[in-house]
Amino acid sequence: LSLDTVRDFLTREEDAIVFSLIERARYPANAPAYGPAAAGDLGRLHGASFAEMFVRESEAVQAKAGRYQSLQEIPFFPFRVPFTLAPPYNFTAELHAAAASVNVNGAIWSTYFSQLLPLLAKNGDDGNYAATVASDLVCLQALSRRINYGRYVAEVKFIGDQQNYTTLIRKKDKDALMKLLTSEAQEDVVKRRVQKKAMVFGQNVTLDGPVETGNSNSSQTSFKVDPSLVYKLYDKWVIPLTKQVEVEYLLHRLD
Ligand SMILES: O=C(O)C(=O)C[C@]1(C(=O)O)C=C[C@@H](O)C=C1
């Protein structure tokens, strides 16, 4: 692990996140899939919404298939993952054991449903609930993988500057840790790049004419997901939550 390789991982995850948002934006809000019994009995199982039930059941299958054997993946409902049917694989232990399970999936879950989704999905109900929540699952998994990868970023930073980090960890000085791990220049690069990816990936591609660049004056290009929304997603949630993971990881790095 190096700062370059972990940043490469985060860069590649941007593609997964932007594509997953584009897919979710195909469907309208479809509120009955999320609400508490909004449409009678729809999907209500043990008091959960249809979306929650879908994520739980999907994670249970993926857990059996071994998805969470990799530390890069953390389920939203860990109590449903008791065993695996996968052939064993010895994933390299790149993280400090005591800090490896640090994650902010709870915050990702609530932010996704209460803040991001209302901005992403247009009003309406087309009844395609299963396809809709399947696309939510892909968004949630991509966001979770990216944000909780902050553990790996923090490990690299710790190894690269052990003395300073150790002092601050011993003092449990969260603010100073946050300051030490922050690179505003890098954050700016990331935010502008994801906005650009939303422009590039979210165009309609046709065989006639040049590829639309999004800056022609004559026709207002419409993107499949608003590039400024993707910028905002990173600015307000993805990067701050990643940094929260980094700080939490570091606080347990000497346990
Ligand atoms: O690339 C880093 O150095 C990170 O720590 C990741 C990240 C990000 O979330 O993109 C978070 C904090 C830094 O200020 C810059 C970027």
Give short descriptive properties of this protein.
single chain; 255 residues; mainly alpha; Chorismate Mutase, subunit A; 9 helices; 0% strand; globular; binds prephenic acid
- Characterize the overall form: globular
Order of helices and strands: HHHHHHHHH
Compounds present? prephenic acid
* Approximate helicity band: 55-70%
Any idea how many domains? 1
Low-confidence runs of at least 5 consecutive residues: none
Q: What is the CATH third-level topology name?
A: Chorismate Mutase, subunit A
Q: How large is the share of residues in beta strands?
A: under 5%
Main structural class:
mainly alpha
What's the story with the biggest beta sheet?
Answer: none
The level 1 CATH classification is Mainly Alpha
CATH architecture: Orthogonal Bundle
Specify the number of helices: 9
CATH superfamily: Chorismate mutase, AroQ class superfamily, eukaryotic
How widely separated are the two ends? 21 Å
Number of strands: 0
Mean pLDDT: 91
EC number: 5.4.99.5
Pathway: Metabolic intermediate biosynthesis; prephenate biosynthesis; prephenate from chorismate: step 1/1
Organism: Oryza brachyantha
Domain Chorismate mutase: 134-246
